[in-house]
Amino acid sequence: MHQLTASRRRLLLGAAAASAGALLTGCTSNDTGEGDGDRTAANDRPAADDKPGKRITIGYAGPQADHGWLNAVNDNARQRAEKYPDVTLEVTEGSNDTAQQIGQIETLINRQVDVLVVLPADGKALTRVGLKAMRAGIPVVNLDRVFNTPQAYRCWVGGDNYGMGLNAGHYIGERLKDKPNAKVVELAGLDNLELTKQRTQGFDDALKNYPNIKKVARQAAEFTVESGQAKMAQLLQAQQDFDALWNHDDDQGVGALRAVDQAGREDFLMVGGAGALSAFQAIKAGRGVLKATVLYPPTMAASAIDLARALGQGKGVSGLAEFEIPSSLTCYSAVVDKENVDQYMSTGFK
């Protein structure tokens, strides 16, 4: 807990910093370094400066965990905080109701937590409560869904939706570049979400590098197993001949694979998205159409806790020239296939 002081106000202007280990391990657990299949999970790797410091309280507010990825995000935050004996984590009950989540965050502000980590159900709708925290002298680490203004957070940590599509497109493109008149289809997520549009844009931009490849169909699903199965069945019925599929989300991919199996199709390759354990296991087994998945790592929540701790303790940066933590940190969307899946198995979410 804290009393609002001039030094705390200066903290929000950039006097605090995080360890490079926090920046370069939690969020980039999807690096491409060598591994022997026993690589330690991101949450089990300490930050560079993990020596106990001043005791602080971090408030964590996320949406309802109604999706495998969101549940993994919440778990990563809790597990990372448990690594630090000097951190107390106050977690709100997740909600997709913006008014309820605003109320939960205001409760944390009133309790005078030292730092806030917020994954808003709706970034635009929750911007005002981020501003309220910052004005109260509580630095905010904005996780994934960004607030409308940088004034509402000290640091943003999130994934690269455009990069997901870009890397999926290049992976497919390199495998089809020598095939004349190659055809691909896309199973997207919710079309009313900006992240879905970004993933599609990245995919389309990547395919521009391969003039022999044409996207012949796109179907939007809803990030659920049921929608993935239904929409994939429609795609398979409408498109009797194609060479590759990019599916935006591994949860809906479970349903998509059911539809593929029911149709008896195995004449194309499939690339998933996010990094579910079931996808990793299928890739490792090497049976079926799923050959790779593009990460949207839930370990970003562990990095957010690292950054929040550093902000609360005013620790310096190790390994970076700047005195302050960055204002934003974008996680890389690595492609995981049979060649490197063992390195990432421990990060897969259920």
From TrEMBL:
SUPFAM superfamilies: Periplasmic binding protein-like I. Its main location: other. The keyword Signal applies. It is found in: Cell envelope. Keywords: Signal. Residues 26-55 are annotated as: Disordered. Residues 58-315 form the Periplasmic binding protein domain. The keyword Signal applies. Residues 1-22 form the signal peptide. Residues 36-53 have a biased composition (Basic and acidic residues). Belongs to the bacterial solute-binding protein 2 family. This is Substrate-binding domain-containing protein.
